[in-house]
Design a protein that fits this description.
Layout: H1 3-7, E1 21-26, H2 27-37, H3 52-68, E2 72-76, H4 84-88, H5 106-116, E3 120-122, H6 129-142, E4 146-150, E5 164-171, E6 175-179, H7 181-188, H8 195-202, H9 217-226, H10 230-235, H11 242-250, H12 252-262, H13 284-294, H14 297-306, E7 322-325, H15 333-340, E8 347-354, E9 361-368, E10 373-378, H16 384-395, E11 401-403, H17 406-415, E12 423-426, H18 427-434, H19 443-451, E13 455-457, E14 465-467, H20 476-500, H21 504-524, E15 526-528, H22 530-555, H23 564-574, E16 582-583, E17 586-587, H24 591-601, H25 604-628, E18 634-635, E19 638-640, E20 650-652, H26 664-670, E21 673-674, E22 681-687, H27 690-699, H28 702-710, H29 714-723, H30 732-745, H31 751-758, H32 762-775, H33 777-793, E23 795-797, E24 803-805, H34 814-850, E25 856-861, E26 864-869, H35 874-886, E27 897-902
Parallel strand pairs: 1-2, 1-4, 2-3, 4-5, 7-10, 8-11, 11-12
Antiparallel strand pairs: 5-6, 8-9, 9-10, 13-14, 15-18, 15-21, 16-17, 19-20, 22-26, 22-27, 23-24, 25-26
Helix pairs in contact: 2-3, 3-5, 3-14, 8-9, 8-12, 17-21, 18-20, 19-20, 21-34, 22-25, 27-28, 27-33, 27-34, 29-30, 29-32, 31-32, 32-33, 34-35
Region (Disordered): 1-20
Domain DNA-directed DNA polymerase family A palm: 666-873
Pfam families: 5_3_exonuc (PF01367), 5_3_exonuc_N (PF02739), DNA_pol_A (PF00476), DNA_polI_exo1 (PF22619)
Amino acid sequence: MSPASTAASTAPGPESTDRSRLLLVDGHSMAFRAYYALPVENFSTTTGQHTNAVYGFLSMLIKLLDEERPTHLAVAFDMAGGTFRTEQYAEYKANRDAAPAPFAGQIDLIHEVMSAMNVTILEREGFEADDILATLAVSAARSGMEVLVISGDRDTFQLVDDDVTVLYPIRGVSTLTRMTPAAVLEKYAVVPSRYPDLAALVGETSDNLPGVPGVGPKTAAKWVNLYDGLDGVIANADQIAGKAGQSFRDHLDQVIRNRRLNELLIDVELPVGPADLERRPVDREAVHQLFDTLEFDVLRERLFATLPEIAEDAVSPGVQVDVVAVGDLPDGLGPWLETHVPAGTLAGVDVTGTAAQGGGDAWTLAVASVGGHAVTIDLTDVAQTDEQTLAGWLADADRPKVVHDAKAAWHMLRGRGLELAGIGFDTALAGYLAHPDQRRYALADLSVRYLRRELVETEESGGQAVLALDENAGTADTAAGTRAQVLAELADVLGADLERRGGRRLLHDVELPVQRVLREMERVGICADTDNLEELRSGFDDAVERHAAAAYEAIGHEVNLSSPKQLQEVLFDELDMPKTKKTKTGYTTDADALAELYAKTSHPFLEHLLAHRDQIRLRQTAEGLLKSVSPDGRIHTTFHQTIAATGRLSSTDPNLQNIPVRTADGLRIREGFVVGEGYGALMTADYSQIEMRIMAHLSGDAGLIDAFQSGEDLHSYVASSVFEVGTDEVTPAQRSKIKAMSYGLAYGLSAFGLSRQLGIEVAEARTLMDVYFERFGGVREYLTGVVAHARRTGYTETIMGRRRYLPDLTSDNRQRRDMAERMALNAPIQGSAADIIKMAMIGTDRALTEAGLTSRLLLQVHDELVLEVAQGEEQQVDELVRREMGAAAELSVPLDVSVGTGRSWRDAAH
């Protein structure tokens, strides 16, 4: 194998030795390469922050940490402003374009990530990052270290020797070439120390250093080798014949300048030396918080997998857990429970199993006391007496228990014939309420955050987290017992944090009660008409083929309608349509862009292309629902309480909250959800204009309150005031404009956004908003005040006290600050709506039970509840639902509830 082949290998680096290994990273160079390697449109957070450069940079670094296993690490960045090189040559790097807008702020984020990882960051005013890397590399090599330099700047090749290797990117940041002395020699025909001589002659385009005209790399290498370096070439300039020699002599000053500028400094004064760069344990709490913000779940797992064991001084040993298996208890389970978790004592309960709604199962259960005693029970092999004792204890509502994701545990235990009651604290829900903008609330994360006790997953424990510090952590019993112990400890410290953040009342009055409602809704499910769904699937499949054929006919040939490349050729080359947004691979062909293009052109190809895509989505929805039908003929979705930061519930497996309702085809899918055997009808009940009612309440605007209390159509009433016409004179277009603006204001809609939404000029949209605010000044004052208040306190709050913390309100990054302001506008309104529907669910479920009715709740879809009503109970349930939903919150305007019934979900619409 040739040296070049070896150099290009992406396999792990040199075998481990006793030498220390220093990894040095050129921060700006690799961040830019990461930015251009990953499509910016595919990497952004829900707040609108672009993250492709951060993601690519971090992905590269994690890979290097895993493969190279460095003992020492540092990242160097360029600083804004000039360097000594620009002082000597003003045109140095002057050809570089300004950083693209989506790149803005990502270097700062990389700094934050490095800080959270405890990686040393180095910058020096007046010097480039390469000078810092060169200084450290030479010093480290002299002290006996092995050095790896990661940079996209070829000037670093001059550092390469037997102790220093440059990892040079040849494709994005994922493929790095190992530039050893042999690799540099084979690639450039000069030894590394003479690479700057070669570059001085040939020039460096990226640095805006022009080369000698007519002198290419081969000629330059020949001269450098023949005359023993650039100094020799200069000394023998008169001896070099031909046009190339004359060109060299004509540009001699330029060559000397190039060589002076491309020489890396190795004596930059730095606050640290190589020995100070030893890798340190990451700040796991900071990593969790930052990666939650960046929404880097996969990278988080990859990062933690590369890290050395957590340092002893970074953890707390906590309470030593005395774990015993129930079979080893001489007197059985009963006496142990009475001794260690007597009545009134909060017990940690850990359940291992599967939480399938249609039939979960539990295999192992552990109970622990705050005092450090735990018992484990193998539910597949337990004595009948102990099983009966456990069943009574679990079902006792007066025995308070702390569980992580109690709804899942309930499904597991129910599959084993055990009921779980008395949930006094759910660590997953509490973690969510304390930090609603995070993405993960795993027990291991909470343990590190609140107890500073690291939990790890082991093969022996079946993938469950166990305490890393436990000598017996590999046993299943200890794994379950220590998790239960962590739960018991978390209830106190996490509960205190929740209290500080104003979430304890929400946990006990809203989230835990609604959790009990949700688990029953998941267990019951909703009946599916599989024949209807199969017929719909087949019909959508036919429509897909029909619209594809029509699209082909419109352009006279077939094309892959799923290929962005082929669509670009048809739309912009063949049909010469107006260009859409520019992307790395051409011009976007996403749904919004194509819809806008169709509005401009009305071309039949686009008409059928959009219909083709729509029918594919509908077909996929129908197929997904058919696959989700359980043996009992019902679909059991899973509701999540910890996904949306605003408090809204979400639904998965399948998602029943995104069943389309605005199209005729979408409504047909709702026909596939029907009343089950033994029941009379489905009932739907939803709030009318709840977000605008909350806006009226929160703003206290007299005009909006009058609008709701008048009983007239809200949007016509508001439009009549804005346009100064009678309510009966309001045109559909005027009502539509007001409706769009009224709802948009609650989401931080700008004049520009309103203009695009309504298809009007920005000036007209701005005038419309100004007139609106003149008529409804309380709304303007509220919208301005809620952001100002959130900036002062750091959070927004719903009418029931649900907080959302928004640290980006004070960010120096304008994009992040603007997004945080929009969240501050939206969170109190959407969050209050979420709280209200949850209270309605709790009240409705309680009222059905107290009335002794058989009817039951099935689904919650944002502002709508779906119930299955028993025969003969329709009138009573109708009154009950209207009463409970109307009383879910006390607002300054009435909560209007609409109710409908029918055989199917669609028939029950109103």
